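User: Show me a protein chain along with its predicted structure.
Assistant: Here is one chain, sequence first, then structure tokens.
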Amino acid sequence: MSITRFLLASLVFGFVAACASTPTNNDAAGAAPALFVARDADSTMYVYGTIHLRRAGDAWGGAHVEAALAQSEEIWTEVDMDPAAEARGQAEALRLGMSPQNNLSAHLTAEDDERLIALCQRLGLPPQALERMQPWMAALTLSLMPMMQAGYDPQAGVDRAVVAWGRANSKTLRSFETPEQQIALFAGFDHDEQMEMLRYSFESAEQSVELVNTLSGAWDRGDIATLEARIVTEARNSAPDMYQAFYADRNDAWMSVLSRELEGAGVDFVAVGSGHLYGPDGLIAQLRARGVRVERVQ
């Protein structure tokens, strides 16, 4: 797995893109995404692995998901999706990702420049649009554009549909992170790492749609084995430092919160990227390690 493939998987299953929407379709014909339920003596916690990029009109769950949501008192998502929080996140992305003083092309070799121009031409993107971006933001832009041109839309993400349902049904909405925290992880790469991300994006832009099609199909089928192998296992083996920062450390922090929730009573619904559920550091394994009974609902 290249760094860019890791980031693509993270964008689809690990991070919520910071843009507002209210997707509502939940016609789950042909879709059976995985939902789990964790129980102890006096608590019930539904755990739902989501996908952050969907095509407009794609199902975000199904009757089993809505039934679990209806039972829940609180809904937890990765990031605060309140409009004010998202506005702060967008401002932070601009602050950390762009600068009038930045000159992206000054960091590129002649070969890099040729490859960037060729990729921008294929994407229909003026190279000048990237010039004031930091390398990490340029890399994410080049990684996301092919997926969006293929119809995948951050505004159609499953997390956003869950939040929209919660708002419409007067549920208490909670979150593990702020948009600023998520942006800081991307912006926190040093210059050499950012340039590596950018160079990998030149190579992998053509493969991004194929990868997302594979992962999205696995999510629709509830194919846990494929999701774990293509997101978690590949990341742990080929990008261990990034895996630790993007997945394992965050899972540990979220598990501390969920452990406190389980100490009380009631029903919660937890919707986070599917990459956070599986593998030895995933939330499912961590819940079971704490003696909580976890079963698959769908």
